[in-house]
Amino acid sequence: MPDRRKFLTRAGYTTLSALLTMGFLQKDKQKEDQTTNEIAANYPNVNSPLRQLAAAKGKRYGAAISSEFLQTEKDYADLIARECSIVTPNGELKWNATEPQPGKFTFESADAIANFCEKHNIEMHGHTLFWHMGRPDWLPYPPTLKMIERHVKGVMGHYRKSKVLKSWDIANEIIADNENEADNATYGLRKGVKRELIRDLFLIAASVDSSKKFYLNDFGIEGATWKSDRFLKMIEYLKNSDVKIDGAGIQSHLWFSTAYGFDEKGFNSVLKRLNDLEVKPIITELDIIIDTPLPDSIKKLDQMVADSYKRYLDLCFAAKVDTVITWGITDRHTWIRHPDWMPGKTFRDNPSLWKFLRPLPFDENLQPKPARNAIAKAFSS
Ligand code: XIL
């Protein structure tokens, strides 16, 4: 037994015998047993709601949610309330939902989510003020600085006093998918996007409401990739421009198959770089998509998904990640079952394969899957 443990044991016995002698322990024994039982009863076990397991470790678990299903599906609303301590509106805070006409703001669907969050003590993550998709027809990409200023003042201003909205994806997916689509070799920004425009966007946001956490959010950066290299350079540029940036949203739409694995070393290097830059890594849109060649059963597919969740989250938590948001909570509403977003032509052309699109912790009947237990174990370990 290592010295440290010997020391603690010896110290423990000494204290115990002194208390017995003084008679304190006898008198408080009942109270102590009760307290211990209360702690045991309250301390979450692996079947506890994910928000409870996360909170026990000072972390948050949540999901992207839809105001439509919150209002039409009571079982869905109950599941979110039970499992999530933070939620991201799936589309309700995108430009086409909040400013459908120039200067005309609408917040009904986003406010419905904010009200739900207030009722259930859930945080709301604002997604997103600047994105090449989810735009109303009148809006160019990139928007002019004047359009950006009006939008940020309108939308962030509406939630400045919100008790639940505490963070924003100030900009989303600004790095191009590859160098052919990039305007700038160093930062890899999408065509027409200058790094100074993103700097000014963050500065305008800070002038409207610096009480929230500000994130730069992107996908395809979960490893050593062309994209993650440029994402990190953009983070560094913002930091060096004295811009308020608190976190990096790592979307984490992960694709695995029996054909290829995961770039663990590269992912760890991204997490380390972010921690060195003092920009907190946040897991913002996690789902595990098993691509072709598919395993030969749903049972095996669900286990592959569960194993991938556990392995990914173990790496995240080892790098002090404290917020994990899955992109949806149930396969019933996963975005990748929509033909526009299915992982590749194989799935789009073969509806018989759609049953293999099972990227989330709960199934279409809102029943827990091995993936939920894997997430629970990752939070608990
Ligand atoms: C997706 C939604 O889930 C879909 O319902 C919508 O049709 C398109 O956008 N990265 C993002 C999210 O940042 O906003 C996207 O959400 C998924 C990819």
From TrEMBL:
Keyword Isomerase found = no
Catalyzed reactions: Endohydrolysis of (1->4)-beta-D-xylosidic linkages in xylans
SMART domains, sorted: Glyco_10
Extract the GO molecular function terms from the UniProt entry: endo-1,4-beta-xylanase activity
What Enzyme Commission number does this protein have? 3.2.1.8
Query: Which keywords label this protein?
Result: Carbohydrate metabolism, Glycosidase, Hydrolase, Polysaccharide degradation, Signal, Xylan degradation
Q: Does the keyword tRNA processing apply?
A: no
Domain GH10, by residue range, is 47-378
UniProt record, GO biological process:
xylan catabolic process
Cited PANTHER family: BETA-XYLANASE, GLYCOSYL HYDROLASE
- Family (UniProt): Belongs to the glycosyl hydrolase 10 (cellulase F) family.
Name of the protein in question? Beta-xylanase
Q: Which organism is it from?
A: Nostoc edaphicum CCNP1411
Q: What is the lineage of its organism?
A: Bacteria, Bacillati, Cyanobacteriota, Cyanophyceae, Nostocales
